[in-house]
Amino acid sequence: MRLYNLQEAYDMTEYGQKRYNDMKPDDHWIQGEDADRCTLCGECLDKCPQKSDISFLLKKAHNFLSKKI
Ligand code: SF4
């Protein structure tokens, strides 16, 4: 979500796509999991103080950031 937010707020598309595609769960430099790991369980919906649809945003982030540059 951080990479997606950087793209949305600062138009850092190339940076976000490069970092997202380099990201690995056990990497020391760019650690993280792909946004498509969301199972759509819905547990986060009631917990988000901003009432954001996190699963929708994760799907959108993955579809956008997973594009190879
Ligand atoms: S992001 Fe939300 S909907 Fe997706 S797996 Fe996590 S808690 Fe469930």
- Taking the alpha carbons of the first and last residues, their distance comes to 19 Å
What proportion of the residues form beta strands (DSSP E)?
under 5%
Counting copies of identical and different chains, the oligomeric state is: single chain
User: What is the succession of H and E elements?
Assistant: HHH
Taking the sheet with the most strands, its summary is: none
Bound small molecules, which ones? iron/sulfur cluster
Radius of gyration: 12 Å
Low-pLDDT residue spans: none
Could you describe the 3D structure shown?
The protein is built from three helices and no strands. By secondary structure, the chain is mostly helical. It has one domain. The longest helix is centred in the last third of the chain and has 12 residues, at 54-65. The model has no long low-confidence stretch (mean pLDDT 92). The site of iron/sulfur cluster has 10 residues, from α3. Iron/sulfur cluster binds next to α3.
Brief write-up:
The protein contains three helices and no strands. It is mainly alpha-helical. The two termini are 19 Å apart.
What key attributes describe this structure?
3 helices, mainly alpha, 69 residues, globular, binds iron/sulfur cluster
